């Protein structure tokens, strides 16, 4: 029904591998002629496992009822930016508060299928929170490597409380990923970073749900960190097109933070691969990544969908985070990069006025309370006295 194929040399690989002998990334490829689609695109009962016939899992899934996230329409912003339809898909409302849960439900189930006892990841925070939660559900041991001092508090709290072994690395995410890949290899632990192709299979259901609810949009905009999600969502649309469920693919638009933008630079120069950033830096710590492991897949998704990659400043990110909050959508900084990108691109005429655009809000506001206090300030404080409170009303 499916095989694990190298995107560079085309060789079929064993399920237990993450990359090909030639070093290329692997991709799950379905024989789509043989797949029996058993779901209806009626916008109802959306969940990751609604699309099970297109997921590479044979066993009973480890699930916390992930997916089925709300798609909000931002009418005020449509008028302001002069764009026909703007939607935000709030992935921050998944069980652990980010889109990673879609990948983990598949990845952790695969770990059980492969009879692994332990799972591990390097993370800027959300992957570790999600993996810890799903490993707990599955009864697996979990190891997490974090760049010390650079992970938002809510995410560390989740990884700790759900029982992962949390290890801080004196280095950045890229160092942590390099180390965990070798540790997994040597200790026989199952690696659940997005270099694992099964995780991306779960995440492609974001595309399925968008089509299920509103059909094919003209563009999908999302932040790029390790570059897995944009690759996954593109794959979802491509599969639906191959099956004949849709007839076009939206432009895939990736947004990076200025201080961590190797994919943007490669796109600008028309290259297929990146030159890493040595010292990535941004307030959006979730996407503070200098050497994204899925860069090749992401650039392929952008080129094939006639999309683009743009950068935004930390200030633009915070300003978009506040706009989303004013629309009732609470997200962490990295998530706001998608809207920041849309605002920038619409101002320079890169987005068709007649377009339907979906921004992916990748993670919940509660993930990063410390940044909120930094940008909003501390709450006002007064004596426990009615007059004093009355005097503060504006
Ligand atoms: N938004 C949020 C909130 C994230 O946590 C991440 C990635 C991204 C966007 C970027 O997605 O890596 O697929 O391009 N976070 C990873 C982590 C790296 O460890 O939690 P991507």
Question: Would you mind describing this structure in some detail?
Answer:
- This protein has 394 residues and is α/β, with parallel strands linked by helices.
- Among the domains are: 1-35; 71-97 and 199-375, Rossmann fold.
- It is built from 14 helices and 13 strands.
- The chain has helices at 75-81, 100-113, 126-138, 153-161, 173-187, 197-203, 205-214, 228-243, 262-268, 295-304, 314-326, 333-347, 369-376, 386-392, and strands at 2-6, 12-13, 26-30, 71-73, 85-90, 118-122, 141-147, 165-169, 190-191, 219-223, 251-257, 308-312, 356-361.
- A 6-stranded mixed beta sheet has the order 4-5-13-10-11-12, with helices on both faces. A 4-stranded parallel beta sheet has the order 8-7-6-9, sandwiched between helices. It has a 3-stranded antiparallel beta sheet with strand order 2-1-3.
- Helix 2 crosses helix 3 (126-138) and helix 6 crosses helix 8.
- It is globular, with a radius of gyration of 20 Å.
- It starts with a strand and ends with a helix.
- The model has no long low-confidence stretch (mean pLDDT 97).
SSE ordering? EEEEHEHEHEHEHEHHEHEHHEHHEHH
Number of strands: 13
Q: Helical content, roughly? A: 25-40%
Beta strand %: 15-25%
What descriptive keywords fit this protein?
394 residues; Rossmann fold; 6-stranded mixed β-sheet; 13 strands; binds ligand F0G
């Amino acid at each position: 029904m499916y095989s694990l194929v190298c995107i560079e040399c085309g060789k079929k690989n064993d399920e237990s591998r993450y990359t090909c002998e030639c070093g290329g990334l692997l991709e799950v490829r379905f024989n789509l002629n043989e797949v029996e689609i058993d779901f209806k695109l009626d916008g109802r009962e959306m969940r990751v496992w609604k699309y099970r016939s297109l997921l590479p899992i044979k066993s009973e899934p480890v699930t916390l009822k992930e997916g089925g996230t709300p798609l909000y329409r931002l009418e005020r912003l449509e008028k302001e930016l002069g764009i026909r339809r703007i939607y935000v898909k709030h992935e921050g409302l998944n069980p652990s508060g980010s889109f990673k849960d879609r990948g983990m439900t598949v990845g952790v189930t695969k770990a059980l299928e492969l009879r692994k006892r332990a799972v591990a990841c390097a993370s800027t925070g959300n992957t570790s929170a999600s993996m810890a939660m799903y490993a707990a559900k599955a009864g697996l041991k979990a190891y997490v490597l974090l760049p010390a001092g650079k992970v938002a508090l809510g995410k560390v709290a989740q990884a700790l409380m759900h029982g992962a072994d949390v290890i801080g690395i004196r280095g950045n995410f890229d160092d942590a990923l390099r180390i965990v890949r070798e540790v997994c290899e040597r200790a026989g632990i199952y690696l659940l970073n997005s270099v694992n192709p099964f995780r991306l299979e779960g995440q492609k259901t974001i595309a399925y749900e968008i089509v299920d609810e509103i059909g094919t949009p003209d563009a999908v905009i999302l932040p790029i960190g390790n570059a897995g999600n944009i690759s996954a969502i593109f794959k979802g649309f491509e599969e639906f097109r191959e099956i004949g469920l849709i007839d076009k693919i939206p432009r895939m638009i990736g947004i990076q933070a200025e201080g961590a933008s190797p994919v943007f630079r490669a796109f600008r120069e028309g290259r297929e691969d990146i030159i890493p950033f040595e010292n990535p830096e941004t307030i959006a710590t979730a996407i503070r990544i200098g050497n994204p492991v899925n860069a090749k897949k992401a650039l392929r998704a952008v080129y094939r969908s006639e999309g683009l990659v743009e950068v935004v400043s930390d200030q633009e990110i915070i300003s978009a985070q506040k706009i989303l909050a004013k629309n009732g959508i609470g997200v962490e900084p990295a998530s706001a990069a998608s809207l920041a990108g849309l605002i920038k691109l619409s101002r320079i005429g890169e987005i068709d006025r007649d377009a339907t655009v979906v921004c992916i809000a990748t993670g919940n506001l509660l993930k990063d309370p410390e940044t909120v206090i930094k940008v909003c300030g501390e709450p006002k404080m007064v004596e426990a006295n009615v007059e004093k409170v009355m005097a503060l009303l504006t």
